[in-house]
Task: structure prediction
Amino acid sequence: MAELSGDAHRMSIPGLDAWLASAQGRYVLGWEQRELDAAVADVFGFNALQLGLPQCDFLRANRIPLRRKAGGTGPIDVACELTALPFASQSTDLIVLPHVLEFADDPHQILREVERVLIPEGQLIVVGFNPFSLWGLKRRRDAGFPWNGGYLPQVRVRDWLKLLGFEVDRGRHGCYAPPCEQPQRHWHWLENAGRRWWPFCGGIYILRAIKRTHAMRLIAPAWRRKPLRAKALRPIANKEGHGH
Result:
């Protein structure tokens, strides 16, 4: 595990930094920061991890003493592959996964590693682009970030998490304005309308999941002896003959 300073790496995803500085990026990250600040504020423990999007501090509102950012590039604390996390099993209380699964070659393995390092009852928060939204309609493989991602439906991510033993909440959606140049200036009224009339069509979703560990139940072998069946009483024949 390599500990790196925040300036040791630069992001290698083409177009990411430019998009983060754009009106679209500020609009999306502003909503995500507010939601994640509220989501992580009451999570306690000793270790917290942010995997992905290290330019943003999505753990800033959390009070866990050791909060680190891990990944391959960017202003990270731990350099690693997300498919092989260099952390002990059941060692982490909280993991935030912002926009990682839709840009990963093996999202299943990342989730398996997340499940491995989380403690029982540890929390995972996943942030992703919603393919069933105006943002999803603009997706195109030959475009730059973020339109070249393999957006995953929320229901699919929920199914993957449930198979790994997580309990998943209903999630939250946001960013209902279309992905235009100035989404906040002209489409601000869509936020309230979207939350009321089409809540599952927001451009971004956030899922919270808790790692559940089912207690082991010991089944004792059937060693008890069956009760002996009481012998039926038989009348004793009168061996004494009667005189005539």
In short: Residues 1-11 have pLDDT under 50 and may be disordered.
